[in-house]
User: Which sequence fits this backbone?
């Protein structure tokens, strides 16, 4: 009996390896189509950033348990819930990192002058690749979520628990060593990407990254708006209010700038259009960075088991809707930059 | 099987006899005391370190010097401060100084619009001046009569037209009025006349767009009346020259094009002018210009 089960397992593993081999062979044989989609630094950015973000919000023990559960290790329902949450957070992190990478690459491409409009347009098109990588890695991380949710459904249903402040919960909020390492890794990856990409600027040497990525109007609007909202929502230490506030202010700021862009397109000049596009890019960038650095790690460290489902639903809207809207706005920015204004004064 | 089990039972009995829980109460209490002392001794440095760290953190966040921090995080201060931040951000967006990123977008967008306008320009006339030997100048008039027909006239200073070139879709015709000769070519690349070499890059909308694309960086925006004027510059290190293109930001069409010799002594880097071109766009062209004027007895080469 056991030998039949072993044989089944071997066949299962072999079939998976075969599928991977077929996929890789297909990619190699496809020629330039997939090689055009390969950009090593972007992939490294998304991967390392994802590792950093996972470490920011979870302990080494939790990460290890999540991997064990994903590999099929049986455990209690509560631990399975934690692991499912970890994998969902990992998927969300990859998605958001991909979008953040797209914004950084887009801004970098805008600064390049060599090779003409066609080359700049190519650079801007390629800037969407990190978002593709983020989505692919996010989908991969969603597989364990679905698997663990399926496992969870086998357990008898329990009444949803409200999440009162447990005595041990304060300890969860305290930064662990791996959390600090995660923050350092994330900041190093983002900082290095920005600084190294801006060294490609050609106006007499590398530009100060702060000059390009720090646009004061959008920083003031997004941060000011976030503080106001956090004060209204309350419970800032839980992180959820930060995530929601950053997402909402980023969304409002970028949509206002989008309207300003459309108006400038019709009635004003190039400089107003450029200023409004800068506001869109900058407010989305600041909001994403704020969510990833402040909101989500806090949320991950406090929200584990016994999460309030309604609260999590709101957070999920912020996690998935805002990056997608930001990406759509970036595509609009791309189109608007490369579309000639028809109006002549 | 039975032998193994009997061995196990023997060991069990032996262990039970040796580790019997039959210590006298006095001895047990003394042992417990010793163990407690040992544990305390082991934990003391850790506890001390923890207490010291906590004390340092407490002093850091409750010290006199950081009272302002507590005050800053009060709701009464945070609420108006954040509203001021939002308002200031909005005001800066409308009136504030421009960022490097916005300048980059302006440059790219302006280049895109200029390329589009030039590509779709119906007709153009430009006059070009190039320094020649003996301190004299060569004067050129380049006319895009229609998208596929260009006429170039070359004049020497204070003299009549010395050369005329017509470029159509089918062929290129060059008439030398001084020698009364006519030559034909199929492609622009085949033009080997040194006097006509200066006109390359200005012979069609496509040539001009190609010349501009990928080289220009926005130097400055200047306000002239209701419209803005943009000046694009480029430095070509290999040829030791600077190119400067002035664009009317109302029509997004070039108005002037200059080529300078690079001068490292000057702050702007611009030295002697090698070429000066003035553009006039979409002006009506007299119909007689559409046909070449060839005098009798012209020979074909």
Assistant:
């Amino acid at each position: 009996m056991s030998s039949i089960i072993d044989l089944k397992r071997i066949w299962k593993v072999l079939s998976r390896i075969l599928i991977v081999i077929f996929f890789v062979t297909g990619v190699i044989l496809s020629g330039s189509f997939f090689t055009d989609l390969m950009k090593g630094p972007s992939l490294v950015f998304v991967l390392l950033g994802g590792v950093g973000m996972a470490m920011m919000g979870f302990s080494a023990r939790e990460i290890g348990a999540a991997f064990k559960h994903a590999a099929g290790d049986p455990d209690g329902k509560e631990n399975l819930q934690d692991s499912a949450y970890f994998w969902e957070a990992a998927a969300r992190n990859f998605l958001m990192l991909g979008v953040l990478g797209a914004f950084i690459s887009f801004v970098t491409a805008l600064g390049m002058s060599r090779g003409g409009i066609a080359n700049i347009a190519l650079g801007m098109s390629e800037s969407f690749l990190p978002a593709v990588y983020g989505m692919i890695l996010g989908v991969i991380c969603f597989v364990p979520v679905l698997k663990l949710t399926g496992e969870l459904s086998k357990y008898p249903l329990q009444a949803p628990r409200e999440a009162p402040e447990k005595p041990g919960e304060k300890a969860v909020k305290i930064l662990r060593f791996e959390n600090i390492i995660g923050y350092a890794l994330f900041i190093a990856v983002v900082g290095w990407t920005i600084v190294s990409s801006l060294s490609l600027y050609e106006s007499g040497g590398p530009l100060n990254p702060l000059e390009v990525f720090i646009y004061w109007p959008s920083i003031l609007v997004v941060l000011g708006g976030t503080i106001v909202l956090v004060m209204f929502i309350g419970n800032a230490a839980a992180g959820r209010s930060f995530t929601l506030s950053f997402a909402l202010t980023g969304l409002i700021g970028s949509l206002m700038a989008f309207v300003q862009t459309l108006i400038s397109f019709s009635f004003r000049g190039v400089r107003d259009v450029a200023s409004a596009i800068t506001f869109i890019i900058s407010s989305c960038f600041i909001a994403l960075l704020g969510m990833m650095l402040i909101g989500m790690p806090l949320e991950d460290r406090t929200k584990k088991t016994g999460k309030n489902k309604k609260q999590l639903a709101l957070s999920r809207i912020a996690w998935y809707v805002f990056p997608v809207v930001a990406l759509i706005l970036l595509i609009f920015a791309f189109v608007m930059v490369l579309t000639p204004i028809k109006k002549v004064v | 099987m039975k032998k193994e089990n009997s061995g196990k039972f023997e060991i069990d009995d032996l262990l039970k006899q040796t580790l019997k829980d039959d210590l006298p109460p006095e001895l047990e209490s003394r042992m417990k005391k010793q163990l407690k002392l040992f544990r305390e001794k082991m934990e003391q440095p850790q506890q001390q370190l923890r207490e010291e760290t906590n004390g340092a953190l407490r002093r850091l966040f409750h010290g006199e010097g950081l009272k302002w921090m507590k005050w800053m995080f009060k709701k009464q201060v945070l609420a108006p401060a954040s509203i001021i931040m939002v308002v200031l951000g909005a005001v800066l967006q409308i009136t504030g100084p421009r960022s490097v990123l916005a300048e980059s977008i302006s440059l790219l967008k302006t280049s895109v619009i200029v390329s589009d306008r030039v590509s779709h320009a119906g007709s153009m006339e430009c006059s070009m001046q190039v320094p020649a030997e003996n301190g004299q100048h060569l004067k050129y008039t380049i006319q895009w009569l229609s998208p596929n027909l260009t006429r170039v006239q070359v004049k020497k200073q204070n003299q009549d037209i010395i050369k005329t070139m017509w470029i159509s879709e089918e062929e290129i015709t060059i008439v030398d009025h001084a020698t009364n000769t006519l030559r034909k070519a199929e492609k622009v690349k085949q033009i080997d006349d040194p006097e006509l070499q200066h006109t390359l890059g200005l012979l069609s909308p496509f040539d001009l767009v190609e010349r501009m694309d990928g080289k220009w960086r926005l130097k400055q925006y200047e306000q002239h009346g209701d419209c803005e004027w943009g000046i694009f510059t480029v430095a070509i290190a290999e040829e030791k020259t600077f190119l400067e293109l002035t664009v009317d930001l109302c029509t997004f069409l070039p108005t002037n094009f200059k080529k300078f010799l690079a001068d490292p002594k000057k702050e702007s880097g611009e030295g002697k002018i090698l070429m000066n071109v003035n553009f006039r766009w979409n002006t009506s062209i007299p119909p007689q210009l559409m046909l070449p004027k060839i005098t009798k007895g012209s020979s074909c080469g």
